[in-house]
Amino acid sequence: MPDKIDLLEPLEPERYELREAPTYEFTLSRREFVEVAGAGLLITVTGSVARAQPGAAGRSGGTLESRLHIGEDGTVTILTGKVEVGQGSRTELAMAAAEEMRIAPERVRVVMADTDLVPNDGLTAGSRTTPSTVPAVRAAAATARELLENLRRTAKSAATYTDLARSSELAAAYKQTPGGAAVTPVKDWQVLGRPRYRIDGREIVTGAHQFPSDIQRQGMLYGSVLRAPSYGATLAAVDPGAAAKAADAVAVREGNFVGCVAPTSYASRKGLEAIAATARWETKEHPSSAKLFAHLKETASKPGGASRAPRIQSKGSIEDGLGESKHRLRAEYRVPFIQHAPMEPRAAVAEWADGRLTVWTGTQNPFGVRDQLVQAFHLTPEKVRVIVPDSGGGFGGKHTGETAIEAARLAKEAGRPVSLRWTRAEEFMWAYFRPAGLFEIEAGVDANGLIHAWDFSNYNAGTAAIESPYRSANARTRFLYCDSPLREGSYRGIAATANNFARECFIDELALAASADPLEFRLANLDDTRMRDVLLAASKQFNWRERGAKRTPRVGRGIACGTEKGSYVAACAEVEVDVNSGQPHVRDFVMAFECGAILNPANLRMQVEGSIIQGLGGALTEAIEFENGQLKNGSFAKYRVPRFRDVPPFEVVLVNRPDLPPAGAGETPIIAVAPAIANAAFDATGERSRSMPVRVKA
Amino acid sequence: MSAALKTTFRFAVNGRARIIKTEGDRPLLEVLREDLGLTGTKYGCGEGQCRACTVLLDGKAVTSCLTPVSAAAGKKVVTIEGLATDGKLHPVQEAFAAEGAIQCGYCVPGMILTTAALLEKNARPTDRQIVDALNGNLCRCSGYPRILVAVRRAVEMRGAADAGQD
Ligand code: FES
Ligand code: FES
């Protein structure tokens, strides 16, 4: 076994999502709910979908009927609490069921994230759909196939799933936990492992698919909510009545919550503008982004201090290790806040009928949002139904239920269904951010070019991939809690991007100190063969060695690797640094990625491509700036996310490992992008950028 | 009540004559979505920066979030719902579905309409021209590479269809 410090227990997503106080909590009101004409379930499931134990823990131990249903017309329905936000889970789950049942994926309907119908599969986060939900679906589907085979054997006939649907055997099996039936080995896969694009592509290209913001209900009104002008500001006075005078709007105020509803978004906006004009706010001091890193450092947890103690993992002796090293280096790295900015901002449609609340909303956490609604409105879980239509992007940014709660509060007041769609400005300012981080690293390398001491401290960024994959006899890894000026939460790859940026850039610094080639230095200090394999695959495709031989002014090459959530990535970049701006421009980029057995190569490639390009945003242009409690760049005009012209030439090498269980793939590729570019920018100029976005003097 | 003045506007949406009485400065985007139930046109920013809200106005791709409904009076509007004819997908739609140029799909209606407008003007755009035409359309899933493949395919499909007509 390689020397390896134990992994700090992962904190995500708990640290960010679950410690947060509820957004609102409303008092009970005696108001009667007006029943809405034509109210009914928007999503009706044909056939009699099993509804036993909706919301029961889906990860293990659920019954077959909570996961799979075969209609008497032979329709196969898969039930899951996971959501589709563009990562390809709907198609992947349909493929998984189709594979095991030996049917075409088109025959499989996947009912997702409707808390009345599906098992609770937890958050759609942390790349967990592939390693946990896919196996659950395969187990259920394999059970159905086995039952069919048994039926064929006993009846000595060519029985079909339609026959199985009518059988007492299936009825009995529904009540059992699936398991025991053998799933199809990778070598026999007919559906899995083959490229397939989104199964509902037609609905998307015709505009027929209804995203959360597209849900329309009879008698529906449009809502808007009053926001503070700055972080921490409190409402001193307001006249909600102003809305009615300005527009056909009805206003509601309860504590700090003020909003209004009207027959159109336009009228709702006018009403809100009128209310806002009457609002008086008490503002509060708020640290600016210019002082962000000093603020993190000042507020960081100290051992034995009043705030939460730092989390520390260590082995050997850092002092001795550094003392014994030939080269000693120390550096500080910084990663700013960034915003997810999914194309569809938060949206919810809430409807109260017969004492029940139904909310259609875009969230990655359907059952969590249900529980938030239960709490906010003093209801019982059976009285709340959350439905998540396939949504317009998430990237870890939609784990919370504030929009659902706001829409429900407005709908309760209005006695009519209400649609609330956050504006882009609201999404920038009031959604949460990827945590900023400060890193202090010190390390020593011995005379053989081997890392001998590794001391890594992370302020605030989070613990994903905090553990160094490099061998070192003496190592200490610390995570320090800080007071974050902005609301923080998950993000694609979350802290792994920040940890890997700091580590992989610093590894380059160590390689330079040891006069070693960055690739050779990594290989010499890594034991993990999967990491070595992706490094070799990427560097080979990139022609790492040959490119190092040729020198062009302001052009350089860089390499980086990383592992997180059971998958491995390595990237090589060639950049040219712009003389004026100091911004590196990517001239060529190769990424090798390995996530075990590949379930759907077409979707995997898109996820990797999307990660590379989205990662370029954080690497080159994205950083949230704030001052006096306000965002300075809270719009697409000022906050530059990658556009079509920003796509560099790049290549993706997918390393397939059919011998390994499939791991999720939507996140990890992003963690190698920024350090590869920063390292290339250094190679080009001899200037080291120790922050994201990367800028160097050319 | 000082509700804003409402005016009657006539325009064609997806080939159908529409008469709407509303405030003239309401964004066309909201009239399409809220009054006509055409929710295929998306809001992404409301300020001309993302083009999720693209529609064709007399054949030209415009941002419906910045187009007041009054500016559509007397004109022909085509939304994503109106692009297919008699249940047959427009070649650009077909190409996007066939090439799987869809992650979350939220940007796709805008991408498709921008592409459709481009191909009307320039039947055989180069990659550079495609990228330039679509640079205003944001895709946060960053599915640009597949979108480029889909647009190339749409160009081919239209070319083949034209050749078939000759
Ligand atoms: S919504 Fe119109 S350009 Fe973004
Ligand atoms: S596919 Fe999600 S925004 Fe383009």
Describe what you observe in this structure.
The complex is a heterodimer of chains A (about 700) and B (about 170). By secondary structure, chain A is α+β, with helices and mostly antiparallel strands. Helix content of chain A is about 30%, strand content about 20%. Chain A folds into three domains: about 15-205, Aldehyde oxidase/xanthine dehydrogenase, molybdopterin binding domain (Aldehyde Oxidoreductase, domain 4, 2-Layer Sandwich), CATH 3.30.365.10; about 210-285 and about 345-420, Aldehyde oxidase/xanthine dehydrogenase, molybdopterin binding domain (Aldehyde Oxidoreductase, domain 4, 2-Layer Sandwich), CATH 3.30.365; about 300-340 and about 435-685, Aldehyde Oxidoreductase, domain 4 (2-Layer Sandwich), CATH 3.30.365.10. In chain A, the strands form six sheets. In chain A, strands 6-7-4-14-11-12-13 form a seven-stranded mixed sheet, with helices on both faces. Chain B is of the alpha+beta class. Chain B has two domains: about 5-80, Ubiquitin-like (UB roll) (Roll); about 90-165, Orthogonal Bundle (DNA polymerase, domain 1), CATH 1.10.150. Chain B is built from five helices and five strands, in the order E-E-H-E-E-E-H-H-H-H. In chain B, strands 2-1-5-3-4 form a five-stranded mixed sheet, with helices on one face. In chain B, a hairpin with a 2-residue loop joins strand 1 and strand 2 (about 15-25). The model of chain B has no long low-confidence stretch (mean pLDDT about 95). The chains are: A alpha+beta (about 700), B alpha+beta (about 170). Chains A and B meet through helix 6, helix 7, helix 8 and helix 18 of A and helix 1, helix 2, helix 3, helix 4 and helix 5 of B. One FE2/S2 (inorganic) cluster binds near residues 46 and 65 of chain B.
Record keyword descriptors for this entry.
heterodimer; A: 698 residues; alpha+beta; Aldehyde Oxidoreductase, domain 4; 7-stranded mixed beta sheet; 5-stranded mixed beta sheet; B: 166 residues; Ubiquitin-like (UB roll); DNA polymerase, domain 1; 2 domains; 5 helices; globular; binds FE2/S2 (inorganic) cluster
